[in-house]
Amino acid sequence: MKAQNLLLACGLTAGLLAALPLAQPAQAADAGVLHIFNWTDYTSPELLKKFTKETGIKVTLDTYDSNETLLAKLKAGTTGYDLVVVSDDFVKIFVNQNLLEKVDASQMPNFKNLEPRWQKRDWDPTAEYTVPWQWGTTSFTYDTKVYPQPVDSLGTLFKPPSVFKGQVGMFGSPSEVINLALLYQGYPLCDTDPDQLKATLALLEAQKPFVKLYNSDGIIDRLTSGEVTMSEQWSGDAERARMAKHSLRYVFAKEGGVGWMDNLAIPVGAPDVANAKKFINFMMDPENAAIESNFAGYQNAVAGSNKYLQPALASAPEFNPPADYKIVFSPGCNAKATKDFDRIWTLLRK
Ligand code: SPD
After folding, report:
1. Displacement of CA 135 from its chain's centroid (Å)
2. Distance from C-alpha of 234 to C-alpha of 321, rounded to nearest angstrom
3. Ligand 1: which residues within 6 Å by Cβ?
4. Does 165 share its domain with 297?
């Protein structure tokens, strides 16, 4: 994983920025700085600048590529981060391993702004540990110039036509790849049935000659540059890729897509819980949630934010799944499923 660090301190010159050490969270010298650890290309710089301007709290940002990477990092010990972003299907895994602080978001002034359907979420019914960040779907994008035929199935990704040989990008995360493959075959997400998992490994092995790389970062660039012509992708990244290259198309497949919500949380041992809570409350403001949606291309959970959305995003197909699209949220894999997925992933990647 490549970590990036960005110090968004209002008024700092480029020269001063260059003189600062990279990615040194939780040092005594930077008390009062909020250290955010989020997915790559998923945090609006404008949002962070606004937070600093309104609160005087400076922010650093490091990034990761998957829930699995975040989990490994937090399990390895104190990271110095004040805020992380965890997907719905991993929240219970993090909570069960005592990796998250309680945030009691329902007590925060802006909690009332959350859309009622997102105030109680299956993975955190009382908002004890998390608040929503963004949500979207997982499917795939292909270049219609390379493959002009109509596409309506995940089969085009998992059993690609010959034109895609060596041209496909898949995520670099077992949960993302295997759950989408399970959905394609009509099996439940987080499946543990041995025969169905065997079939899933066979499907992924057969797809492998078409796959150029397994990597969750840099997909927008690879699709727009033509380095890959088809890729597993999240809806917001797909919208951003299509805006840059109009021949790209995100597929709402007849088998459905995986739905997910990413959630803000405070890791155990966070150096500045009070500032982390200020940011969480800040994110439940409609205008701030919309700034993030406008940057990343995903839906947020804050009522009243739509009026701040850029028209191109508000009307984007990736942002507005068809009414009859089957969106399947993962129940969160239990220990057995996680172990099975790891085994399949190891066999696939060897
Ligand atoms: N550009 C990064 C977007 C991160 C999306 N997270 C998706 C999690 C799905 N399990």
Report:
1. 8
2. 12
3. 39-42, 87, 138, 176, 234, 237, 260, 262
4. no
Q: From 63, 258, 260, 327, give the residue whose CB has the most ligand 1 atoms within 8 Å, as the site to mutate.
A: 260
Average pLDDT, the chain: 92
Backbone torsions φ then ψ of 186, nearest 5 degrees: 85, 15
Closest CA to ligand 1's atom 5:
234
pLDDT digits 0-9 by tens, 150-184: 999 999 999 999 999 999 999 999 999 999 999 99
- What φ, ψ does residue 321 adopt, rounded to 5°? -55, 145
Q: Cβ–Cβ contacts within 10 Å for residue 323, how many?
A: 5
Residue 6 lies in a domain: no
* Contacts (Cβ under 8 Å, ≥6 apart) of 71: 90, 93, 94, 97, 99
For the cut 50, the answer to whether the pLDDT of residue 6 exceeds it is no
Q: What is the pLDDT of residue 30?
A: 60
Its pTM stands at 0.91
Query: Exposed (0-12), middle (13-18) or buried (19+): which is 2, by Cβ within 10 Å?
Result: exposed
**Containing domain of residue 114, as a range?**
14-135+260-316
CA of 132 to the centre of ligand 1 (A): 13
Q: What are the distances in angstroms from CA 335 to CA 192, 268, 349?
A: 10, 22, 21
> Sign of the CA dihedral 261, 185, 241, 228?
positive
Domain CATH number, residue 74: 3.40.190.10
In this predicted structure, the answer to whether residue 135 has a pLDDT above a threshold of 60 is: yes
Question: Rounded distance, CA 115 to CA 106, Å?
Answer: 13
Residue nearest to atom 8 of ligand 1 (CA): 87
The tokens describing 217, both together, are 């970062």
